[in-house]
Design goal:
Structural class: alpha+beta
Strand order of the largest sheet: 5-7-8-4-3-10
Order of helices and strands: HEEHEEEEEEEEHEEHHHHHH
Helix content: 25-40%
Strand content: 15-25%
Largest sheet: 6 strands, mixed
Shape: rod-shaped
Number of helices: 9
Number of strands: 12
């Protein structure tokens, strides 16, 4: 009875003594009389718990190896304006405590126990890019096996700074870093290692990640480095996390409606240039496109200039240019039907180059474009002047209708006027054709760019 009392009283004393003598202590084996079917006796680890402020080492000249691993289970948010990545991690840390050991064969087969983390020494591992308060829940447990290996897992909502590149939004791919390091312990006291291979971390994270369909995990790679702060050197493990945005939502809600509106505006070129409904139709489309941009503004990044914003600006610019071209042609045709001005020589030469490249160098026109030798039938693709222009009767027709007041000079003036009208009408159709081809080129380039970016 007295020996049993002596053992119980001297047990904590020898444990404390071995802990307080660095370099002289040895791994302590727990007395299994304190184990039972109800678990560990409540005071068997009190001496270890009392020393939780000290790094558990029998020799303080030997650094403690802490193996880390994590599982990224969610990408919560990517803030392009603040350059922040919000993710949810399960961080796992494993290290050895040489003072907690027992023989399972002598301890009723017990190989693992759980201990409240508030009673244990925990490595001060933190993420360098962390930009928020650590909200890890209190009262977590750690598992200790019979060899003194402690395994501690904790959930973390990590808001980390990340240099985001949104130029290719919504086909962007972001590369962020998570740097794990110790805040207090240098390489003389703590070294970092890997509990799992990096490919295991990537595969596990990729299988369970929940991103509501917007982000997908591409890969995770790592690098080891040492951080020098003055005379101190800290161990680090840097993880490179590559994520990619799923563009399906933005293609359906942004690119497809915008493409439809541009295509409808391109089809409006099939309306006659002299039609009175063409300009109101384009104005309606332009207003509808502006309303579309206002409604979809919340889906676009607030900061930066992504490629999709450039695309929207080009679409809007094309629609504005198309409307201005329609207004100009309407004015030009109205002027041509009332008092057609003479066509400048350079414009006439340009018109010849666009309609008949073989005749790019015509003879110098006479004054007032008389004798240009360019009738509507000689210009490919020329539409006959509309009825609003009015048909000018020829010389024989005038003689048959009996116009005694008509002279050859008047007939020539009328023929010249009709010829100028046909030239200006032809010019309007050439402008329509060039702008329509520009629309087709823009649409083809846009579709090709979307396909290439989506498949890259």
């Amino acid at each position: 009875m007295e020996g049993s009392w002596f053992h119980r009283e001297r047990f904590p004393f020898f444990l404390v003594l071995s802990l307080l003598l660095p370099g002289r202590g040895s791994a302590f084996t727990i007395n299994c009389s304190r184990f039972g079917q109800q678990g560990v006796y409540t005071t068997v680890l009190d001496s270890v718990f009392d020393r939780k402020a000290f790094r558990p080492a029998t020799n303080f000249s030997i650094p403690t190896l802490v193996n880390i691993s994590f599982t990224m289970s969610a990408v919560l948010d990517v803030d392009e304006q603040l350059q922040l990545l919000s993710s949810f991690l399960w961080l796992e840390m494993v290290w050895d405590n040489p003072f907690i050991r027992w023989n399972p064969e002598e301890c009723e087969g017990i190989t693992k126990i759980s201990v409240a983390t508030k009673n244990l020494w925990l490595p001060d591992i933190f993420i360098t890019e962390f930009m928020d308060v650590d909200k890890t829940p209190k009262g977590l447990k750690a598992y200790i096996n019979n060899e003194g290996r402690i395994r501690y897992k904790k959930p973390m909502k990590v808001t980390s700074i990340c240099e985001l590149d949104i130029f290719y939004f919504p086909f962007d791919q972001q590369n962020c870093t998570l740097t794990f390091s110790s805040f207090l312990y240098t390489v003389e006291s703590m070294l970092l290692g890997m509990e799992k291979e990096v490919w295991e971390i990537a595969d596990t994270s990729r299988n369970i990640i929940q991103t509501h369909g917007e982000w997908e995990l591409l890969s995770i790679s790592k690098a080891t480095a040492k951080l020098s702060m003055g005379t101190n050197l800290y161990d680090q493990i840097i993880f490179y996390v590559a994520i990619r945005r799923s563009p399906r939502l933005y293609v359906i809600n942004l690119l497809v409606p915008s493409g439809f509106l541009v295509a409808i505006d391109a089809l409006s070129f099939f309306l006659p240039a002299e039609s009175e409904n063409r300009a109101p139709f384009k104005i309606t489309l332009l207003l509808g496109y502006n309303v579309f941009l206002l409604m979809m503004n919340d889906l676009l990044p607030i900061s930066g200039t992504p490629l999709i914003s450039v695309y929207f600006a080009l679409c809007l610019s094309l629609m504005v240019v198309s409307l201005l071209e329609t207004i100009f042609i309407t004015y030009l045709l109205h002027l041509a039907t009332t008092q057609p001005p003479p066509m400048p020589h350079w414009l006439h030469s340009l018109l010849l180059c666009c309609t008949s490249p073989k005749k790019c160098c015509p003879a110098a026109p006479q004054k007032g474009n008389t004798g240009l030798g360019l009738s509507p039938t000689h210009l490919p693709g020329v539409k006959e002047p509309v009825e609003s222009v009015g048909k000018v009767p020829g010389l024989k027709e005038a003689e048959l209708n009996g116009c005694p007041g008509s002279t050859r000079a008047q007939q020539e003036d009328k023929a010249q006027k009709q010829h100028l009208v046909s030239l200006w009408v032809q010019f309007s159709h050439v402008m329509d054709t060039l702008l329509f081809r520009l629309y087709l080129l823009f649409m083809a380039t846009s579709i090709t760019t979307v396909i290439v970016l989506w498949n890259t």
